[in-house]
Amino acid sequence: MGFREGNLGALGHGIRHRTTITTCLLMAVFFVCYTNREFLRFPVEHELSTALDDHPPNTLKLSDVQGVSTVSGDHPANSLTLSDAQCTALFPHAFDEIELALSRGPVKRSLDKITNGHVRARIYNGALYLTDRGLDVWHRQSAILHQIHRAIVTAPSPSELPNINFEFSVNDHPSGDVWSLARSDADKQVHNTWLMPDFGFWSWPEPHIGSLDEVHDRIIKTEGSMTWEEKESKAVWRGTVKWNKGLRGKLLDVAWDRPWSDVQRLNWSSNALAMEDFCRYKYLIYTEGVTYSGRLRYFQMCRSIIITPELKWHQTTSPLIRSAGPDQNIVIVKDDWSDLAETIEYLEANPEHAERVANNTVRTFRDWYLRPAVETCYWRKLFRAWAHVTPPVGQLYPEERGTRWESFILMHRLHWGKNA
Question: φ, ψ for residue 390 (rounded to 5)?
Answer without folding.
Answer: -125, 155
